[in-house]
Amino acid sequence: MIAKIVKGKCFRGVINYVLDKNKDAELLSSDGLRLKSNEAIIQSFTHQAELNSRITKPVYHISLDFSAQDKAKITNELMVKIGVDYMKQMKIEDTQYLIARHFYKEHPHIHLVINRINYDGKTISDNNDRHRSEKICKELTRQHGLYFAKGKDQVKLNRLKEPDKTKYEIYETLKDLIQKCKELENQLQKQGIAIAYKYKGKTDEIQGVTFTKNELSLMAPK
After folding, report:
1. Among candidates 108, 18, 38, 96, which has minimal Cα distance to 87?
2. Does the pTM exceed 0.85?
């Protein structure tokens, strides 16, 4: 599970996106909001944000994305539980929020829209939020026995744009060569390229390789 955090100024755009019927959206849970319509939800958020006009970005929009390998076990009920636990551990409490699920992508994911101005007009801190979020996501993934993605091996190359597309093509090529070609090191050394291996603990398992030439280095993780 990973989280993507965005802070914004206006609730209208994010609500219309998160509850877009074209994305097969389903509202799973909420607190402190009038749910009669999108407009009623927007007004609910906006009126509370006006309790503290000093905050220019009262919108917290957080998506929680799960691996497609967990699709069978990720129910709506589990998503709500994880979403609420995530907010609690992030110290996001006593404020308006909604949790909506989108079904138009292959991997399960939910969107949290949160008011950073709580019911008392106080600001919910965003201090170091991305670092805290990363730790919480890892803990919740372990707690619920969810799948841990393996970095670059989970990247869908056809969805990448430049320059990332080329970087991952280089990575894939080097990974295959390292695994299959025992003479690679000798060939590179003849070209003046030195190789240093990074091993996993005290084992012989290679975790990464660094290529160096003319004091410039390039790391290629396994």
Report:
1. 96
2. no
Task: Give 51: exposed, middle or buried? Use CB within 10 Å, 0-12, 13-18, 19+.
Answer: middle
Burial class for 94, CB neighbours closer than 10 Å (0-12, 13-18, 19+) = exposed
Q: Which two tokens stand for residue 96?
A: 């308006």
**Rounded CA separation 189/195 (Å):** 8
Domains of the chain, first to last = 2-143 (3.30.930.30), 151-221 (no CATH)
3-class DSSP state for residue 106? Answer: coil
- Sheet strands (E) in the chain: 2-8, 26-31, 59-65, 97-102, 109-115, 194-199, 206-213, 216-221
Q: What pLDDT digit, counting tens, does each position of 170-201 carry?
A: 766 666 565 555 566 777 777 888 877 777 67
- How far apart are alpha carbons 222 and 41 in whole angstroms? 47
Distance CA(192)–CA(13), nearest Å, equals 54
